[in-house]
Design brief:
The protein is α/β, with parallel strands linked by helices. It has one domain: Alpha-Beta Barrel (TIM Barrel). It has helices at residues 31-43, 59-69, 98-112, 132-143, 156-163, 183-191, 217-229, 233-238, 251-260, 275-284, 291-302; strands spanning 4-5, 12-13, 16-19, 48-50, 77-82, 84-86, 92-94, 117-123, 147-153, 170-174, 195-199, 267-270. The strands form 3 sheets. An 8-stranded parallel barrel has the order 3-4-5-8-9-10-11-12, surrounded by 6 helices. The chain has a two-stranded antiparallel ribbon with strand order 1-2. Strand 10 (170-174), helix 6 and strand 11 (195-199) form a beta-alpha-beta unit. Helix 1 (31-43) crosses helix 2 (59-69). The protein starts with a strand and ends with a helix.
Length: 303
């Protein structure tokens, strides 16, 4: 894959990024297999890796760090997130205080085994979290040489607010065939020189004919996650099942290509536990999608 400059940053990244989170870092998924998938992403041209200090209770960063240790990281771009922490009751809560963010960053640097984070992002903050103290803390991290660039992962009104803050070099948002409304926010972010990173580009497979098909333990994890977080979108997914019947394409490939076709998108984040799925996603970057099919997908959203 050809690398491209991430908007106004100094980073050059692949059009596909790999998300190291969720089941990749979970101990129910073997470490050997997790490391193999991450390494395969590197070997096949992906150079942008995104994780978070809270993912899999911090184990996602540990596993990514083990892979980085055995690679030349000069051409890799590593992003992580801070602001989500485990409280004393072992529940994930938001904490964007200077003390918490500093602790997040120091632990991330240690677990990843790097001296500097290429992109440090606020993890799903509310508008009130993006205050002067937080912005000053992030700027201090940059001045201290611990991070290169600053971003955040958010949607909706928080994204509208963040787009106008000069300190943020990038935004990570949800955009896919089921969630096309953020198109205008993507355009606005690009106008303001922000790098645009897309999470959930394949809409969690909610359009798939096989979404209820369980063949292994990881499928159980994915299905339960869908029921917990995306049950309302299941019905919307049925409207797009026609993409599973296009010759020469898998439905997931079409969903991913739809996002990559957006000229204002810098990178789409993918995540998988199967190397065959990883390679299939990478091949999508070289395929051409019929413009009439794109128009049909867009038309569904407007009905």
């Amino acid at each position: 894959m050809d690398l491209k400059k991430l908007s106004n940053t100094s980073l050059n990244i692949s059009p596909l990024g790999f998300g190291v989170g969720g089941i990749i870092g979970d101990k129910m998924f073997s470490e050997k297999n997790a490391l193999n998938v991450i390494q395969s992403a590197i070997d096949n041209g992906i150079n942008f890796f995104d994780t978070g200090s809270s993912y899999s209770n911090g184990n996602a960063e540990v596993r990514l760090g083990k892979v980085l240790k055995n690679n030349n990281i000069d051409n890799l771009v590593i992003a992580t997130k801070g602001g989500t922490v485990l409280n004393n009751n072992n529940k994930l809560v938001k904490n964007f205080s200077k003390e918490s963010l500093t602790k997040n960053l120091e632990i991330s640097l240690k677990k990843l085994g790097v001296e500097k984070i290429d992109l440090f992002q606020l993890h799903s903050p509310k508008i009130e979290h993006i205050n002067d103290d937080v912005l000053e803390t992030l700027n201090q991290f940059k001045q201290q040489g611990k991070i290169n660039h600053i971003g955040l992962s958010c949607d909706g009104k928080v994204l509208d607010y963040a787009i106008n803050i000069e300190l943020f070099d990038t935004v990570m948002l949800t955009y896919n065939i089921l969630e096309q409304k953020p198109e205008q926010q993507i355009i606005e972010a690009k106008k303001r020189g922000k790098g645009v990173l897309i999470k959930s580009p394949m809409a969690h497979g909610l359009y798939s004919n096989n979404i209820f098909k369980i063949t292994r333990l990881a499928d159980v994890w994915y299905f339960l996650r869908v029921l917990k977080n995306y049950r309302p979108q299941l019905f919307e997914g049925f409207k797009y099942r026609f993409i599973n019947k296009i010759d020469g394409w898998k439905g997931s490939e079409i969903a991913l290509k739809f996002v990559l076709e957006n000229k204002n998108v810098d990178c789409a984040m993918i995540g998988t536990t199967r190397i065959e799925h990883l390679l299939s996603n990478i091949k999508v970057t070289e395929k051409q999608l019929n413009k009439f099919l794109l128009e049909k997908i867009e038309a569904v959203e407007s009905t």
